[in-house]
Amino acid sequence: MKESIKVVVASANPVKLEAVRAGFAAMGFSGVEIIGKEVSSGVSAQPLTDAETLEGARNRALLARNAFPEALFWAGIEGGIQPQSGGLEAFAWIVILSAEKWGESRTATFRLPEQVAKLIDEGYELGAANDLVFGGQNTKQKTGAVGLLTKDIVTRSQLYTQAVQLALIPFGNPGLYK
Known about the structure:
CATH topology of one domain: Maf protein
Oligomer: single chain
């Protein structure tokens, strides 16, 4: 019987779990078992810069590795926002670890509506701000801001999946990455 490849995702959010599953599958990994484990990001609940968001994803991946050292891969995903050109842009960083390698990638970015940005300025997290503006409930565990704004043409899981694939590049090119 073939053993599964255990991948620990530093979250219990179904959107993040699905993105990691889909990303690994698209990159040719078979027999992948996804395990979700809530861990702290070590950064603010709503990261407000690119650097803080990347730090949160790195921290999550490292804490997942500490929680499940027997796994083959650990994934940290952190969504963040950053002021850009007079508005706020949203994105996420994905960090994938193995015992030997490290891969990172950032998602595409998109501009948030002024109503959402105003609520974030008042101290709301992006998910809560979206729920208020769009009248949803717990949208961050569903389609996310990107899905709400694109009417699900691009969902949060889809946005993250491509970045997972890109973070896996070092693992598929062993001679090129240390």
